[in-house]
Amino acid sequence: MIMEIVFKESLSDHEYNLDNYILGPRPDTKPTPDCYAILYNNDTPVRRFDLYDDDFYDFKKLYHITGKWIIICFGNHVHWFNLVTTSIISHKLSLSGSFFYFCEILEYKNNILIATDEKLYNYDSNSNLIWKSESISVDGVIINDIKNNYIYCSCEMDPPGGWVEKKINIENGKVDIISTCKG
Questions:
Q1: b/e map of 10-45 (b: 16 or more CB within 10 Å)?
Q2: Structural domains of the chain sorted by starting position, each given as residue range(s) with its CATH number in brackets
Q3: pLDDT value for 161
Q4: What's the CA gap between 140 and 119, in Å, rounded?
Q5: What are phi and psi of 18, to 5 degrees?
Q6: 134 vs 116, 123, 168, CA distance in Å?
Q7: How many other CB atoms sit within 10 Å of the CB of residue 62?
Q8: Distance between CA 134 and CA 115 in Å, rounded?
Q9: What is the rounded CA–CA span in Å between residue 137 and residue 57?
Q10: Helix (H) or strand (E) holding 122
């Protein structure tokens, strides 16, 4: 079984009639979602997610499918959809500046790591937040490697091109700087 999510701005008639789930805060004044996410199973659309966000920024939308979960990152929310029970768990992440966006989702052992423009979040496999890092970047976090209980990241501190290498303890989120700005 091959499952994937496709993000869309509009729907076909068939997609409109799929079972749908609302993800994110839906204001009464907004009848149309900010975005749709269609779940495909072996190239067949099977489920629709209507995505809303109160602080909508359309920089990057991400998803990850693991075990019983579909994880959808949209706006400033992380939504966990349980494929077995169809329950939804949503986490609103903190906005620090004028922009917020997701950089990547990475699964490592029983952890789900979510990198944003400013922080790194570590969740367990049941959607519980283990820790979030301090502010480690101003314009993007890229996970380069994980070894010896550390997450090695590139963090842009002085855009464009002012990258700093940092390592973060995977157990507690403590940050160490490895190198100064490159670029």
A1: ebeeebeebebbebbebeeeeeebbbbbbbeeeeeb
A2: 1-92 (no CATH), 99-183 (2.40.10)
A3: 81
A4: 8
A5: -70, 155
A6: 12, 15, 10
A7: 18
A8: 12
A9: 18
A10: strand 120-124
What token pair was written down for 88?
Answer: 């939804």
pLDDT in tens, 59-74: 678 999 999 999 999 9
* Element at 15 (helix H, strand E): helix 13-16
pLDDT digits (tens, 9 = 90+) for 123-160: 999 999 999 999 999 888 999 999 999 999 999 988 88
- Reading the block at residue 177, the tokens are 């700087």
Residue 52, both tokens: 């809303």
Are 71 and 83 in contact, with CB atoms under 8 Å apart?
no
Sheet containing strand 175-177, strands side by side: 141-147, 150-158, 162-169, 175-177
Per the structure block, which two tokens stand in for 153? 């990241």
Q: Using alpha carbons, select from 168, 172, 169, 173 the residue that is nearest to residue 155.
A: 168
Q: Which is nearest to 151 in space by CA: 134, 163, 136, 168?
A: 168
CA proximity to 6, closest of 57, 52, 49: 49
Contacts of 89 (CB under 8 A, 6+ apart): 79, 80, 82, 127
Instruction: Measure the CA–CA gap between 121 and 109, rounded to whole angstroms.
Output: 15
**From the CB of residue 64, how many other CB atoms can be counted at a distance below 10 Å?**
16
